[in-house]
Amino acid sequence: MKFLKSFQYKTVLKSISIKSFVGIAFVAMVLVSCQSLKTAVFDQYSYQQAISLKVEGLNLMDEAVNDFTQHAAEVKTLRLDLQKIMEYEKNKPDNEVSCAMWKSIANEERNLLAGFLKRWKEKNQLSQVFIDEAKIQVSESIDLIIKYEGQKNKTNETKILNFLN
Question: What's the rounded Cα separation, in Å, for the pair 102 and 12?
């Protein structure tokens, strides 16, 4: 009889051990998978600002056939708006992808919006052909952010990461 009780006790212990192990493994897998899904949630403000900056930026780029000095105040305002969105995006949790893309657009050494504005200031006027080509690049880069902000999925994230590389 003692043997039977001992056997039943060991069987119960094994059953509890297996259930505990399975439970712990399940919790660990959930935590690991959730960690890989960390992405900032949809943010209406970010989405609206991206659209606003695209429209304002492309419209201002059209003015680059004119002297820079005529539009210096508008350029200053647009640069300030770029700084604001960068600061906002930088401080959102789990938002490294959007933040990196805004940094790229605001980088004066890249051929995107801030780089275009810098070149316009240096040259004072730009040709229509150059403006048209630059607008395509700027539009595509901001569209990537707009799409990513509208639907934060792996496909849109990959497009941004490929663009940055």
Answer: 58
pLDDT (tens digit, 9 = 90+) per residue, 87-96? 999 999 888 9
Eight-class DSSP state of 124: S
What token pair was written down for 25?
Answer: 């493994």
Do 75 and 82 contact (CB within 8 A), yes or no?
Answer: no
User: Distance (Å, rounded) from C-alpha 105 to C-alpha 61?
Assistant: 14
- DSSP class of residue 70 equals G
Contact 99, 86 (CB under 8 A): yes
Residues in contact with 41: Cβ distance below 8 Å, sequence separation at least 6, in sequence order:
152
Which residue has 């002297």 as its token pair?
A: 67
Take residue 157 and report the two structure tokens written for it.
């994230």
Model confidence, pTM: 0.74
Interatomic CA distance for residues 137 and 146, integer angstroms:
14
Q: How far apart are CA 137 and CA 106, in angstroms?
A: 13
